[in-house]
User: Which sequence fits this backbone?
């Protein structure tokens, strides 16, 4: 079975601080994909990143970076120099196409509040 | 950038009534999905649809739910007899073929069952 755990329910930081959102996943599949989505107050789900299980390279995109470690089944997301516009709920998600299902299993989300 | 479009953005209905939520996926996408999010909770998978049939569904997607692609552009979710616990945000999503492709989500329909 697939499972995604985001242990941090809510995080508050002051603007310009760095913040890391944790994601731990479980799957028996050898091929799987990990995602992060952002849900701003307006409610839509915005794709941030996709990573496949064979690519453990960390990725940086502007102020965003992702640390994928298969050894600990984690796919953590760091925002550097946070801004008020980063305030949102962030979801980590997993898909395991080997089982014929390309649907996403979402974690419970982490609500990030950036205080000006 | 192409978008998944959902209508209406808000729907209020009485318990026991039928509702149809509408979605227009991105035009070259072949896989379609419905998810729901009860207020403050996680996003839950309902159903996936490919080649004019359901490819997978969750336990939530019981006999009260159905999906349809009535023409070449629309993708609908019908709830036959709504219950209070069906109140949620319903998201439509679509993707291109390929393993692990990202899902593009619509802005959602907020369904309130009174």
Assistant:
């Amino acid at each position: 079975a697939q499972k995604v755990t985001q242990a941090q329910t809510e995080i508050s930081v002051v603007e310009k601080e760095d913040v890391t959102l944790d994601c731990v996943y479980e799957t028996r599949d050898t091929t799987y994909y990990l995602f992060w989505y952002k849900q701003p107050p307006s409610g839509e789900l915005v794709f941030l990143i996709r990573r496949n299980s064979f690519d453990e390279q960390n990725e940086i995109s502007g102020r965003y970076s992702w640390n994928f470690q298969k050894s600990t089944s984690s796919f953590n997301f760091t925002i550097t120099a946070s801004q008020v516009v980063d305030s949102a709920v962030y979801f980590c998600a997993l898909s395991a196409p080997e089982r014929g299902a390309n649907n996403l299993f979402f974690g419970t989300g982490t609500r990030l509040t950036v205080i000006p | 950038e192409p978008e998944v479009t959902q209508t209406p953005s808000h729907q209020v209905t009485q318990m026991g009534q039928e509702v149809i939520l509408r979605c227009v996926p991105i035009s070259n996408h072949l896989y379609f999905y419905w998810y729901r999010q009860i207020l403050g909770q996680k996003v839950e998978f309902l159903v996936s649809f490919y080649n004019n049939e359901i490819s997978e569904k969750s336990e939530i997607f019981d006999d009260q739910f159905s999906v349809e692609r009535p023409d070449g552009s629309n993708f609908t979710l019908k709830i036959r007899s709504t219950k209070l616990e069906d109140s949620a945000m319903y998201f439509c999503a679509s993707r291109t073929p390929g393993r692990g492709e990202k899902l593009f989500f619509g802005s959602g329909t907020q369904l309130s069952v009174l």
